[in-house]
Amino acid sequence: MILFTVPSSPFGARIRIQAAAKGLALTLAEPPGGLGSDEWRAVNPFGKVPVLRTDAGDIIESAVIQEYLEDMYPAPDLRGADPFAVAGVRAFTRAVDLYLFPALFGLRGAAAGDASALAGAVAELETAVERLARLTAPGACLCGPSLSLADCALVPARFYTDLFAARLGFVSPFARDAGFEAWWAHVTGLPPVAGVVADLARIAAAPKAVRPA
User: Fold this and answer.
1) How many of the other CB atoms lie within 10 Å of CB of 75?
2) What is the pTM of this model?
3) 154, 160, 163, 165 alpha-carbon torsion, rounded to 10°
């Protein structure tokens, strides 16, 4: 299988963590023609990444790709042991996409504006993180004792939150939450996560690093 993505994409990163946890070998490739190009829109009409190319065809949208991989390769399970656990993982992942990422990407525009705009964007981000904390379950990982799709989603989001905070001069809201700090210390020690985080850090440190796509 081929995963079309760009190195800085947090949405591609979550699939890479999942695949590594399952021992799946994905071939990584950048979009032919580049993001938004006519050539790439022939693959994904929305011009975005990631896209998973399978023998049956192409699959768009990271959440859908992850569900496909869980269906095709159920071991180890990253969705949950029962329907309620699965719902919890899906709810957390959905909350990351609907509330955390819009707040995180809102920092990009606010950074170019005045101080009050940045303060408002930071407050929105802090609210999203505080509400996510209420969705976590007891255990070393977000939804229990083992890695799940919720962790796969939050790892790159946390990475970019910390990166933007350092660049814009505020304290990451994740760093002020003891639960998220303990989770981060644990999860970044897991090989499937550590490799992807190291790649994101290397890309972020490179000259003219690409912003997350």
Assistant:
1) 8
2) 0.94
3) -80
